[in-house]
Amino acid sequence: MSQGEHTVAEQILRLRSQIDDHNYRYYVLDDPQIPDVDYDRLFRELQALESEHPALVTPDSPTQRVGAMGDTSFDAITHRIPMLSLDNAFDEEELREFDRRIHDRLKTDQAITYVCEPKLDGLAVSLHYEQGLLVRAATRGDGYVGEDITGNIRTIPSVPLKLRGEAVPELVEVRGEVYMPKAGFESLNRTLTEQGEKTFVNPRNAAAGSLRQKNSAVTARRPLEMCAYSVAVPDEGVLPATHWDCLQRVRDWGFRINPEMRQAEGVEDCLQAYQALLDKRADLPYEIDGIVFKVNRLDLQAELGFVSRAPRWAIAHKFPAEEALTVLEGVDFQVGRTGAVTPVARLKPVFVGGVTVSNATLHNMDEIRRLDVHVGDTVFVRRAGDVIPQVVKVVLDKRPANAGVVERPTACPVCQSDIVQIEGEAVARCSGGLFCPAQRKEAIRHYASRKALDIEGLGEKWIDILVEREMVKTVADLYTLDKFDLMGLERMGEKSATNLVNAIHDSKQPELWRFIYALGIREVGEATAKALARHYGTLESLMQADEESLQEVADVGPIVAGHVRSFFDQAHNQETIAALRENGVAWQQETVDAGGQPLEGQTWVLTGTLGEMTRDEAKAILERLGAKVSGSVSGKTSCVVAGESAGSKLTKAQSLGVKVLDESEFASVLASFGAGPAT
Ligand code: IVH
Q1: Residue with CA closest to ligand 1 atom 6
Q2: Which of 39, 250, 449, 542 has its CA 20 to 30 A from that of 343?
Q3: How far apart are CA 336 and CA 15, in angstroms?
Q4: Are the beta carbons of 16 and 62 closer than 8 angstroms?
Q5: DSSP assignment, residue 258?
Q6: Domain 323-405 is classified in which CATH homologous superfamily?
Q7: 674 φ, ψ (degrees, to nearest 5)
Q8: Ligand 1 proximity of 140 Cβ (cutoff 6 Å)
Q9: What pLDDT sits at residue 6?
């Protein structure tokens, strides 16, 4: 070997060890030390050296994970130690029985220490290492004979190709779960949808499908991870005495172990761990279907032994299933509060995700086509956490001969107005606007909301009743209600009726921007409403503005301009505005921008407590002067006003070198513009 090659070999080893260290920090310790770009640079450097010196490539090099056709043989592999399964406990009582049985067998009253591990919803794998190198990986199969999936397993970045540390036993078998994190699953399904391919029903199926690939290069592109949960070595004397410590050892060798793992003393503690994990379930980045309790001491495990195919020392306490099969009995089209027409699946009631589900969203017609769902189909329904139940797959084999095709209605099922679908948008909408009762409730709720006309006491409950009894059809009708109308309603006493009528009456002179905002024009939020009010000064001139002129207003682009124009073009909206005026609503005029406001283009942040005015007042003044008021400080912030006990925003402003004013400085700035709390 020449001197030059010797150096290259060393360089390669150094790079590999650096890359392995970064992988370890990233996958095992969850504590990366370098940004991805630097990692990629090291990786490319190693790739370049190895391709110049192919003789120096070894199978444990991090570059050797990419995979190729035929890497994975799927040959039968007999497990030296059978891969058993776990008994399940479906409720608290079954878990208590498990703990009682253990006490009986061990003849002890002392609390047992258990290790509590999330039950990852993936696939069990067995990995064999010889002299620290990964030599074989197998699926569980029937527990006795699995399939050789070494080539596919090698592509998973959290599986070490070579074990770390000094004292690695000559032969090691590590078992664990291969799974696909939720985010990876979502993005894989998105890609598959874009490519017109079939999607996976859940992360578990996606993980299984990915491990079954004949071409490891495909597996390599799938976002799989592996978490270790057990270890075996021929000479058990070299392992620590507890399961917990064994897993720490496995971690030192370079495996990821689950960060949610904990120990519990006795069954009560286990029940707490169950509840705590269940509460966390929806927030975890991967799916779990329960919690596994394992007796911690290995000598006690040995004493307890096995029964048929499961250990006596472990149990899985299952969580409510998040998927179930049921029958689609029909599809209704619901008009949402913004006019969006959404197909809703009517299902034969089914218990899933801890509740009985009889409706599920189908999103839109594209989704119905993608799922190819017919009325009468047997479907998979999923409900994870608080997420709305979804239909995720049709079981085609079970489709009855008379299954019905789902067609989108052409008229709104509530008000019979045309349903329109803008090109390129997935959502179809009812064109009825305020005329459509389904949209009316939302329009009224929005009109009465705090940032709009702020009608206290007019909550959702009363709005539903008023609209359902047809006492209020448009927001203009609110002003015709008297206390006697309201007192006729159930649970509405004279006092509340009077208060509500007064609150409605008090809303009759809104600032112009609030009124514009209250109309509920699509995509016209608070800031746009303010900009429109400042630009046009009166509602009349806004109502007459064409799309071109509308786009002169700050923040108004062609889409918003189109929404504003079409809102005012609708006859029923014009009628409602006229009726509001007739019923005494008189919005104020706004001083029109005299072509330039002193703080135009600036972003201000208010923090801490101001003595002379509320933050909302300060915000209003700044906005009148043309500034945007934001809730967070960044490098783009023009100025921060820091009142009493300002905290992290002030610190951040100082660290970024953003200008900071105290309250008196702020007051003098305002005074210089002729503005202040009194204006
Ligand atoms: S221990 C003899 N621990 O659950 C002990 N299994 O129903 C066998 N699983 O096939 C397994 N997370 O795929 C164990 N922390 C965990 C687990 C876990 C998921 C799966 C595994 C196994 C199945 C048993």
Answers
A1: 119
A2: 449
A3: 57
A4: yes
A5: -
A6: Nucleic acid-binding proteins (2.40.50.140)
A7: 70, 20
A8: yes
A9: 66
